Amino acid sequence: MDRKADFFSLFGLPCRYALDETVLNESYRTLLARVHPDTVALADVAAKRRAIEEAAYVNDAYRVLKNPVRRGDYLLQCHGEAPLGVSEVLPVEFLNEQLEAREAADTAWQAGDADRLEALWVSLEEEQQQRQQALAALFADDETPSKAALAQARQHVLSLQFLARFADDLSEKMDA
Amino acid sequence: MAYSEKVLEHYENPRNVGSFDKEERGVGTGMVGAPACGDVMKLQIKVGKDGVIEDARFKTYGCGSAIASSSLVTEWVKGKTLDEAMAIKNSEIAEELALPPVKIHCSILAEDAIKAAIADYKAKSGAEPGHEEKTAEAAVCSPHAAT
What class does CATH assign to A92-175? Predict the structure, then answer.
């Protein structure tokens, strides 16, 4: 297994944001079957250790690609950008919208307003889809996007991170 | 993960939760977000005529450490001048709350929030004299002034 290869080529995928999950899942199973520590003879300690490391590597790569935020972060890094950091500048309007949406969710939850929570969920999913589509368009081929496009992509990935957090909160409230 | 007692105390009894009208005179609003975890924090200060922070409010959607950090900062800034408030360091917040290394970014968020609130207040209250300066400069530089 080539551990210098990027995560996409590891799974036989093109280096793009849009993801073919069927290919990803199939390659994942194939790779894991090949490197699974249980397939190595118990006595061969070095081979066993290598298999454990490779399995961990495959699992990590799979989790990164599967996650819409981490996949975006990874693509930014593939194209020479810094990983998402602690201090990132986000538009105040976006943060305001986020705060308002979370306040609305709190109010609806306290009032037991399931319809309002559902409506918030629908618009949240819409925004997630829009941003993922925008990322798919920005990372559509093997070319490195322009600096301006990379900056846009970064904003989308950061926003998706906030939306994912809100989605966790919201689904908890909807289940309760 | 276990929270420290001070974090729990602020989390269970957060101080100064709420909002000021951000258009009100003397109010500065800082909006910040933590990309690492998707937390959102709004911190507001109300500055008196003497330049001292009279009151503060916050609203944080995030983990216990983020809520505790912002709650603590609203207590700390009251009675401080803007310069004193600007000098608050995230390391002091982290130390006071005994935050573990993985939660240091929550204290950074609170420091960023207070700085953003002060910057917003200065931008709002300084808008008028700043505008005059610009006009004066423009007059000197404009071709009309030379003729």
Answer: mainly alpha
Question: In which residue ranges of chain A is CATH 1.10.287.110 found?
Answer: 7-66
Candidate from B31, B37, B61 with C-beta closest to A92: B31
Contacts of A80 (CB under 8 A, 6+ apart): A144
| Residue numbers in A near B34 (CB within 8 A) | 86
ipTM reported for the complex, 2 dp: 0.72
Q: Do B35 and A163 touch (CB under 8 A)?
A: no
Interchain CB distance below 8 Å, A88 and B59: no
> CA–CA separation, A64 vs A15, rounded Å?
13
Give the integer Cα–Cα distance in Å for A39 and A56: 15
Record the tokens describing residue A136, joined without a space: 């798919």
Whole-number Å distance between alpha carbons of B45 and B74 = 8
Assign B57 to helix, strand or coil.
strand
List chain B pLDDT tens, one digit each, 147 residues. Answer: 578 898 989 988 999 999 999 899 999 999 999 887 789 999 999 999 999 999 999 999 988 999 999 999 999 999 999 999 999 999 999 999 999 998 998 999 999 999 999 999 999 987 544 444 443 333 333 333 333
Identity of the residue numbered B43: L
Whether the per-residue pLDDT at A143 is higher than 80: the answer is yes
Rounded to the nearest 10°, the torsion over CA B94, B96, B100, B105 is -20
Q: Domain A7-66 is classified in which CATH homologous superfamily?
A: DnaJ domain (1.10.287.110)
What is the average pLDDT value for chain A, to the nearest integer? Answer: 91
Q: How far is B104 from chain A (nearest CA, A)?
A: 10
To which residue do tokens 């559902």 refer? A118
B37 noted as active-site residue: yes
- Of all residues in chain B, the one with the smallest CA distance to A155 is B35
Instruction: For residue A147, give every residue at least 6 positions away whose Cβ sits within 8 Å of its Cβ, in sequence order, or none.
Output: none
Domain with CATH 1.20.1280 in chain A: 92-175
Q: Please identify which of the residues B8, B17, B37, B86 carries the catalytic annotation.
A: B37
